[in-house]
Structure of Universal stress protein:
Amino acid sequence: MATTPDPGTEQPVAGPEEPMLVAVRDPDGDRAVVDWAAARAASLSAPVTVLHAVADPGLLPPGSSFADEVKRGRELIGREASRVVGEHPDLRVGTYLHCGGIVEALLGLAATAPMLVLGADRKDAASGEFKGSVALQVALNSSAPVVVVPPTDHAAAGSKPGGVVVGVDGSGMSRSALLRAAEEAARTGTTLTVVTTVGAAAEASLAEPEMLAGVRAQFPGLEVRWTVDDVNGPVRALSLQAAGAALLVIGRHGSGARSAMSLGSVTHKLLLDPPCPTLVITRTSVPAEA
């Protein structure tokens, strides 16, 4: 079923910019996600749309009312939109209610959205198993950059002193991730930490790669730290460096000169337990203010 604007709540403000999309699945668990997206949109003077999905009528449990589900969905995004406007009075906030899967909704809107923001997939407290794979499916299939926010992250976007962390492996995608990370760090006035790892049998140089010289030239006032982890694997290395960071930036795929930093598999594992808000670069050409 096609995604349509929800007629019962506030609509996106018309303008030349497409709104950032933030998905709300659980009103309690996703509060930090909405806060992060709202703070980022406010810092960019950009619009944001709060999105929620209700199941198709044919997929509802017996005895459930589709009308009630729609009503609850409208109330949820309406409350979140009102809360965000209360915290950011000048922010342009809209709502969108989708009938169908949340993955379907986000991937369908990714073609025009500058960024998708959603919460990390949650684990069952008793079994430890994941309750679905929404964040993973969206991040691995979206045509737009995706930010996955962990449930424990309650800071405003870009407000933490931990800086921006990026993983590189020498591939073209990791170069795009590096450039995007530099833009993010420069925009928020924080430090950039560039991380790579060395495999047990690799003979990689500990010297800074050539692409860092380009970043330093393009952003002369940016503090750049180059870190080579020759002890841990890429997932552990990035998790350690990004703990407490404002943002972790990674490429969706990677198979470059440093094969130990294979960002395809690394992305998959990091998104299961992101150490901080994690931006997945999904386009080779990335706009500066998405």
About this structure: The first helix runs from residue 31 to 44. Confidence is low (pLDDT under 50) at residues 1-16, 200-204, 254-263, 284-290. The chain is about 35% helix and 20% strand.
